[in-house]
Write a structure and sequence with these properties.
The protein has four helices and no strands. The chain has helices at 5-19, 36-49, 71-85, 89-97. The model is unreliable at 118-126 (pLDDT under 50). Helix 1 (5-19) packs across helix 2 (36-49) and helix 3 crosses helix 4 (89-97). It is mainly alpha-helical. It folds into two domains: 5-49, no CATH class; 68-126, no CATH class. The protein binds adenosine-5'-triphosphate and magnesium ion. Adenosine-5'-triphosphate binds at residues 1-4, 30, 32-38. The site of magnesium ion has 2 residues, from helix 2.
């Protein structure tokens, strides 16, 4: 990779931020072919060298699926948690969200396939109305 010292220094600062346990975000934008993916690959490698985990997701210009880039990210997080706990992904998610947010867990089924009964986890106000008897 040629150059990119300034960008890599900025990303090292980003990794430092994450290593401190803070929430950090970077937007990397540039024209097609300018070298975004190459730079990100190097940053992921640097993260790996620091024993930091990286998860990736991507959009697809042919799909309009909601939350598509997040699906593999959450699927990997939940699968890892399930393995750690020795439970199903569904049980792991419910354990992680805790009692306080249990009723919202069903919202995750829009992002990952958790075998949740449709709408079961949705709070009442977000549930679609019951079909009403036809007006007479
Ligand atoms: N810093 C660099 N030094 C040398 N070659 C580079 C550098 N950055 C990128 N390239 C080369 O340029 C080409 C395009 O790079 P890359 O795929 O990273 O661009 P991109 O911005 O992700 O493109 P796209 O917008 O199409 O996804 C690749 O062949 C890559 O190897
Ligand atoms: Mg790219």
């Amino acid at each position: 990779m040629v150059g990119r010292a300034r960008e890599l220094a900025a990303f090292d600062g980003f990794l430092d931020c994450l290593a401190r346990g803070e929430s950090c975000a970077v937007v990397l934008e540039g024209e097609s072919g300018v070298g975004k993916s190459t730079l990100v690959t190097e940053v992921v490698e640097r993260a790996r060298a620091r024993r930091m985990r990286s998860l990736q997701g991507a959009g697809d210009k042919m799909l309009a699926t909601p939350f598509l880039p997040w699906a593999p990210v959450f699927a990997q997080l939940i699968a890892g948690e399930a393995e750690r706990r020795g439970t199903t992904p569904r049980e792991a998610l419910l354990a992680v969200v805790g009692e306080a947010h249990r009723e919202h867990a069903g919202l995750m089924s829009a992002v990952v396939d958790l075998d949740l009964p449709e709408h079961a986890g949705l709070p009442g106000s977000m549930r679609p109305p019951e079909p009403s008897s036809p007006a007479r």
